[in-house]
Write a structure and sequence with these properties.
There is one protein chain. The protein has 2 domains: 86 residues, no CATH class; 125 residues, no CATH class. It is built from 6 helices and 14 strands. Strands 1, 2, 3, 4, 5 and 6 form a 6-stranded antiparallel beta sheet that branches. Strands 8-7-11-12-14 form a 5-stranded antiparallel beta sheet. A 3-stranded antiparallel beta sheet has the order 9-10-13, covered by helices on one side. A hairpin with a 4-residue loop joins strand 4 and strand 5. The longest helix has 15 residues. It is globular and about 50 Å long.
Amino acid sequence: MFIKNFLGESANAKACRIINTDLLEFSIRQTFLEAITSDFLIIENKSLGYNIRYLLRNFRFNSGTGITSYDGESLFENMDGTPKQQEQWKLNRRKAYDGSFMHYLRSLYTNTTRQEGFLTYNIMNRTAPLQLDPKLVDMEQFLFTVDSNFVELKFKRRFYIYHDMKKASVEDKVTNDNEITQAMYKEGSIMTLFLENAILDKKGSYIDYKSFYIQGYWGKKRLGDQLPF
C-alpha cells in the first residue's frame, strides 16, 4: 500500500525500487497510515535513469477517503548508462514532463497554458459523472503577482485539466459536449485548492505541499514520475 501510494501507479513508478525500505517507520491511527524516515531513502528509477535520495518528512494515507499526501526533500543523480540507454532516458523524461503537473504549473507562472497544450474547464457538479462547462477557462484571472519570483494562484472551484496540443491550438474554440471524449475523462486531472491559495515559482514548485488536492491522471503520477526542478 505504501509503495503504490508513494511511488504512483504509472509504468515509470513500476520501474522504481526502494533499496533501503528498512528505514521506513510506520504508524497507524484510525484510518490513517503514516510513515517517516530518519535518513534518505535510496530509490532507483530505471525508467527515467535517476538514483533518487529522498528524505521523507511525512507520509499519510487515509483509507477512508483514499487521499494520499507526502512531503520531503529529493536529490537526483543521473544513472550511468550506454548511449542507447541515455537516449531512451531522455525520451522517457520528456514524455513524463509533457502534460505533467510541473509542466502545468510552469505554464501557469508564464500564463502560457493554452500555448503549452493545456485545456482547463470548470467542473459544474460535485459527483460523478463529471459535468464540464464546455467554455474554456482563462486562468489569468486567478493569478496574482506576489513579487519578482512568485505568483499567487487563488480560486474557489474545481478545474478539469486536459493536455492536448492539437485541441489547444484551435484559437478561442468552445468545446461542445461531443468533443469531451472518453480519452479526456480518462487522461484528465482535477485540480482543487486544499488551502486558501498556492504560491508558485517559475520552476513549477509551490511553497506548501498541502496547497493542492489533485485527482485523476496527475493523482496517479507521484514520485515515480517526478523530475528534478
